[in-house]
Amino acid sequence: MPIVQPGKRPAKRFQSSKIMGGKMHRHLRTGNVELNVVPMVDMMTMLVIFLLQQFSATGEVLYMQKDIRLPDARHGQQIEVAPVIAISAAQVVVSGVKVADVPDLEKDPSQIIAPLTEKLRDEKKRWDFIHQNDRDREKNWKGEVNVQADVKVPFRVVRRVLASAAEAGYGNINFAAMEEGGPAAAKK
């Protein structure tokens, strides 16, 4: 039984009769309100199209930083999920955390970048913790790292990053590059 507002109510047979003159119906509002759903459907269509365009079946492996312009490559393969070392003209970043400034690296004579090596060892410990219950844990560890280096970064800085990665136990190094003739190459 529906909940109704308290007040006078004639018997059902008198509600719409000529005797009451429809006086009881004047104060009632109709519950039917017309709602234009066309704009809502248009908005939902736009959202679905946007989400489909942003969807990646392979997953986002690399976050593209705006201050890094990757070199072009004619031949390559898809990279797998691994820690990312991003080298821009100003700084070296591992998995979103800044570990060194490039101008400071050019002044320092040592070959190994200590904060970078430490951060990569922390990533290895994290991987070990996540996969500690796996049966074939050692077989799965590949020691891969993805390097995302700007085109204008000097090779001596890249060489130091590679040496630091090897020191931390990451021997399989993948370089990120843009596919020649791809969407980013058209932005030149």
From TrEMBL:
Q: Does the keyword Transmembrane helix apply?
A: yes
- Family under the similarity heading: Belongs to the ExbD/TolR family.
Q: Which InterPro entries match?
A: ExbD
Q: Per the record, GO CC terms? A: plasma membrane
The superkingdom listed in its UniProt entry is Bacteria
Please provide the Gene Ontology terms (biological process) for this protein.
Answer: protein transport
Q: Which Pfam family is an annotated match for this chain, by its short name?
A: ExbD
User: Is Nucleotide-binding one of the keywords UniProt gives this record?
Assistant: no
Subcellular localization, as worded in the UniProt entry: Cell membrane
Annotated organism of origin: Anaeromyxobacter diazotrophicus
What is the name listed in the Swiss-Prot or TrEMBL entry for this protein?
Biopolymer transport protein ExbD/TolR
Q: What is its main location?
A: membrane
| Signal peptide residue numbers | none
Membrane topology label: Single-pass membrane protein; Single-pass type II membrane protein
Q: MF terms per GO, please?
A: transmembrane transporter activity
Q: What are the UniProt keywords, alphabetically?
A: Cell membrane, Membrane, Protein transport, Transmembrane, Transmembrane helix, Transport
